[in-house]
Amino acid sequence: MIRMWIVGMLLGMLSLPAKSSVPEPATQVIVLGVDHAAQLVAREDRPAVLAAFLDRADPDAICIERSPEAFARNDFYEFTYEVQDVVVPFARERNIALCPFDWHPSSEDAQLGFGMDLEAVPEIRPTRGFQQFLTFPEPAQLKRTLFHADVAANVARSTQWSLTPAARTAQDLPRRLFLYRTFLQAKRIAAAARAHPGGTVVVVVGEFHKRDIDEVLADEPGIVLVQPSRLGAPTDAEVEPFERREYRVAVATFNLLGMQASTANRDDAFLRDTVDALIGSGATPDVQLLAARLDLLQGRISRAEATRRYRQIAATAGDARFTWTGVKDSRRLDSWFDPFGNLSVRQRALLELARESTLAGRAGEAERRRVALRRELTARQQRQLDGYWPLLAK
After folding, report:
1. pTM, entire model
2. What pLDDT band is residue 394 in, cutting at 50, 70 and 90?
């Protein structure tokens, strides 16, 4: 009986059609290295430039830096502005396949290796170190271009870091984990490429991962690597149709209301063009506040005039919210770049009044505003307001 079953199975296998000897067409893979969220400070790498590049590449699929499990929950890293605010909307509007490819250790493994859950945000974020607010303090970061990841000096920097063990072996886990993570990223990208034979797959990934991903994919059959620079940067005429109000609001909000403002590292001409364009498309309450803040930081108005404008905005904004905040957890007061990112426009105008009082040495007036603002917040947000309040003086 068993012998007859085996014979039948073998005969069935022999009757299956033979696999075609014609290889599937190769898939073009373009790995674009990015500096996460730098699109918000660098004119030549701004969101519309990235969108225009994706349009030029005309991909069948776009691979994004998030694990498949998190992506299925519509959950992204806080700081990957380019992913959730540019790439994902671009792909969904055009019915382009999205392929999440990241890998990260389980919470248990992270606790074992680092003594913490790497994705858990502390109640009060530090101004320095792990989980700090994101800023771009170096002037060179404002000059970043779309293909900066492929500049020789940048490649050498990432190569040296990834190949150089820590001085003490016990402290080498970040590098080792990075290499393992990047290898698995490359393997998931390869799987995505195999799902689109003969097509084009664009990968948007943090620039430190790019060199290793390129090297792993170079040995994958059926993949042809194409460097992004081969496509060339989009022209101004090609970028213009991709300029969107939400991109401009994000640029202005990040630079003018977040911790970036405290660095004084900004492209004033870029920000002026951005805010002027926003005013031209409608001076909503949040745009009025952004315009007042920019005029003050650029020295176009006095602190007394800024105070007058903040008061007017607070009196007329009503329950208006900001067009873009970057806030991931609405139960918190902060975002990944702004200690006070979850306030309404009216509340933010009142906060800016408190900032001006603080800087003018009127501590009692600023304290009264803090107390009044606390009444409108949850207990958790109150604690965060108190914890971040000293940052108003910076």
Report:
1. 0.92
2. confident
